[in-house]
Amino acid sequence: MKVTVFGIGYVGLVQAAVLAEVGHQVMCVDVDQKKVDNLKKGIIPIYEPGLTPLVEQHYANGNLQFTTDAQDAVAHGEVQFIAVGTPPDEDGSADLKYVLAVAETIARFMSEPKVIITKSTVPVGTADKVTAKVQQTQASLNKTVEFDVVSNPEFLKEGAAVNDCMRPDRIIVGTYNNNPIDLMRELYEPFNRNHDKMVFMDVRSAELTKYAANCMLATKISFMNEMANLAEILGADIENVRKGIGSDPRIGYHFIYPGCGYGGSCFPKDVQALIRTAEGEHYQPKILQAVEEVNNRQKFKLPGLVKQHFGAELAGKTFALWGLSFKPNTDDMREASSRTLITELIAAGATVKAYDPEAMEETQRIFGVSDELVLVGTKEAALKNADALIICTEWQQFRAPDFDLIKQQLKNAVIFDGRNMFDPARLSKKGFVYYAIGRGESV
Ligand code: NAD
């Protein structure tokens, strides 16, 4: 099938590569000329495990094309994916300007029937707006070409995006009527062989399904962070509590890890956007508001512990920081807890020496080059003469470090662990002061 994908970001590029892998002919279009030029040279704009070989192979065999020419791109596909960003507006609601700009472009250039699929995460009612935009644009050009609008939200996880798209848990398809159903089945048939993962519904339910999923996940995290803070106050260990509740199959072990707050391009903005949607309908979404508040507070947890240990004035202190991306296996720094930490430490006068396996370039792009934030090439190089080690992201390579070396390199044997990676008793035996989340301080 011929497929067009608008937006070559985490979602658009991965989806396009995976569709090309099963044999669809995919044309990707973006307004970012540099991104398109780079992709043609084999330079992939994001880090995502397994993505580079797929893109290279299918660009070489012609199944995957990259362009900035929207007219060509609209002509190419019988289905047109909209996978552009939906960043938060000033008030936190989802900004639809990129989505609607693509809808207008498709309407402008289409000369035969198209199925327009919104992949971007968009508020309930967006399919109606896309439909209206296409109709208005066509009317202004005196043309009437048939089209269907489908809501097909994406559930991939950054860091496991290729696998998630190759083996989706479910494929949500929201339609206004039965017209596009056969085509959607054909498009996703290669991913639907083991059992039927396609769930058809109306467009509004499909749009809300995406927000409900992300908000539920964010709720689990904020709930656990609330419990962790309580555990600390009450003298309990959240890791015991986590295992204790996870053993109940109604709760389960997944996604109940406490930490220094969730980040990324989705949870913070989607929780906020659903709050704004609810408020727009004069409904107070009390759980969602609490989820957001707890998370905003949790991002200050690590800087708070550092100041509790070293005092509020950190001038002359240097901290080794391991992990900058908002989670492992990605270079994405959007809303990462490390950003709050770095900003707070520098504001208190400290210097930060940071290392991340993938997010160094992105960190430099965000913070620039300065004397206060030094980026180093290995996790060991961050340690030398630092006053303490702080961990923000649970990369595999941080899980079993050489503690003797850490102790030898640091000025003080102090670790602040925002992801509860180590056993407090073991670290205490090794002579560390160890701060984790919801486990108290172990000396
Ligand atoms: P991104 O910012 O990485 O990529 C968006 C791309 O769209 C950019 O390359 C941008 O240049 C391009 N673009 C903007 N306007 C355009 C236009 N008019 N024509 C063509 N291209 C245009 O975004 P992303 O992380 O891929 O997210 C895209 C959408 O998918 C968002 O709504 C997001 O909420 C949703 N989503 C993201 C994830 C994730 O993990 N990143 C997961 C599920 C859903």
Compile the SSE list and pairings:
Elements: E1 2-6, H1 10-21, E2 25-29, H2 33-40, H3 51-60, E3 64-67, H4 70-76, E4 79-82, H5 97-109, E5 114-118, H6 126-140, E6 147-151, H7 161-166, E7 171-175, H8 181-188, E8 198-202, H9 203-234, H10 238-246, H11 267-280, H12 286-298, H13 301-310, E9 318-322, H14 337-347, E10 351-355, H15 360-367, E11 373-375, E12 388-391, H16 403-409, E13 414-417, H17 424-429, E14 433-435, E15 441-442
Helix pairs in contact: 1-3, 5-6, 9-11, 9-12, 11-12
Bound molecules: nicotinamide-adenine-dinucleotide.
Domain UDP-glucose/GDP-mannose dehydrogenase C-terminal: 320-424
Pfam families: UDPG_MGDP_dh (PF00984), UDPG_MGDP_dh_C (PF03720), UDPG_MGDP_dh_N (PF03721)
InterPro entries: 6-PGluconate_DH-like_C_sf, NAD(P)-bd_dom_sf, UDP-Glc/GDP-Man, UDP-Glc/GDP-Man_DH_C, UDP-Glc/GDP-Man_DH_C_sf, UDP-Glc/GDP-Man_DH_dimer, UDP-Glc/GDP-Man_DH_N, UDPglc_DH_bac
